[in-house]
Design goal:
The structure holds two protein chains of two kinds. By secondary structure, chain A is mainly alpha-helical. Chain A is 81% helix and 0% strand. Chain A is built from twelve helices and no strands. The longest helix of chain A has 32 residues, at 215-246. Chain B is of the alpha/beta class. Chain B is globular, with a radius of gyration of 22 Å. The chains are: A mainly alpha, B alpha/beta.
Amino acid sequence: MLKAELIRFWAELRFYRQLLLGNLLSALLVVGGIFFLVSLLGEVSVSGLVALLFWLYASIPLSRISADIYEESTSGAFEQMCLHTTRPALVLLVRMALYALQQTVVILPVFFVLAVVFGISWSALTAYPWLGLTGILVMTLVGLAGLGLIVGAVLLIYRDAISYSSAAEYVLLFVSGAVVPIAQLPAFIQVVAPWLPLSLGIEAVRRLAVGGELSALVLLLGVQSLALLLGGLVVFRLSLRRALRHGFAMSR
Amino acid sequence: MGVEPRPEPLPRDALHHPQPLIAALSLSKSFPSIQVLSGVSLALYPGEIVGLLGLNGAGKTTLIKLLCGLLSPDDGGISLLGRPLDSSLVRQNVAVMKEGQPSLYEFMSPRENLGYFAALMGLRRAEEAVSQALAACGLTELADKPLLYLSFGTKRRVGLALAYLKGARVFLLDDAATGLDLPSVAQMRKLLRQYADMGSAVLLTGHEMGFMESICDRVLVLHHRQILVDSSLSELVSRFNLVQTLEAWVEGDPGFGEVLDTQNSLTRIRFSIADAPRLKPERVHYLKLHEGLLEQLLREVQGAKS
């Protein structure tokens, strides 16, 4: 499974290498622009920048996986995949892991460029708890992978869902607390936010840097991410079964 | 996914071929607003190429999807190698090429596409197997070019190479020859025959009757949700009294055939192939096949049904 997806990953990377560069540039501009606005409201911090960059990982389940499923269902490659493996969900999980690595390669230079541009000191960077951040990131990504499977499951059945997946990515920007801490958001968002792994991840990253009760939050994040992953696997399986009975949305 | 086949007789004489590679019994399938198939039975045997004919919307693609498990029947059952169809059996034994699209990754080269699916299948000595499959389908020189830059015919050949790589016992091709140029059609014909000669069964759909006529050992006609004809070409000729008809522009009145048009001293006639020897070659200005056997068969079947 990993070997197959590595072949696909390198081929895609080679073929769309300009796109990768474009992604880097747009990430730099979007995150840089938002961070500039945030900096007008308060102090510039490493955790603030990290929180924003966390949001970029949301594009994996909401844009990339949904685009993959949409395009591959349309071209028939997804059906071909189903004819060659009994575990397409696992294929998608491996793919999301590779996309997360690729996104990290985009995010790291964006982070350092913005850190320099916004005058974040070297001592602030070295003092940041990177190990803890990595752990929180991995847990968040597990939850996002579950979300990716749910999005994929919906797309197998409803082709119009692709129209909303990118919009959902930008909704997450605000709902997750990437821009403004959840506590400062409107009440109805505060109700929704704790149900999203990205929100918990970003909040955990903030507390990691500025202090606050962390262990319960991290435990909640872990449990929620695992639940989302398992839920995603179940929903995807059910959706695939339905698609195999009634036909894939994109090829009907 | 698989449904236990009912103990009903096979649609063909089982004495000659005791074990079909794949058999469908009384398949029915409907979508929310339309019933597509009703009580369809068929069997494919080793070494044969079977043509599935029918008008657009007759249900050919739906039938192919049912046979490879990409759709489940509402009723009826499918057996593959004598066992109820299931996804792992399909994975090992069935190759599918969809209509129009090659169902592969456009940004990947033929070698990468085959390598990808070989890795998904967990194929051992995959690189060697991929190279063999590419060579068998005449793709060695184009093996490392992304599919996006390859012609439609070449992409279809990559689909064939995937079936070869898989060593599939059953190969299902939807709209087999549509959009292919003459060399690609010839190559596909050769590859499919080689494929069948290795003991696999090929089921193909298409509207290029000349191609189908030239390659199919047997023909199924799907019409009004059912298979109305399941016969070899020779059986069809005698059963439906099929005769190929030709059309020609000849000088003067040839004295046979149906006159369609006259212009100056030329007459356009339509006549049976049996009358072809009566043509005087020096008086023929133009000659073409008017209607092939399968075109005639489809017309007969539609006429009879309506």
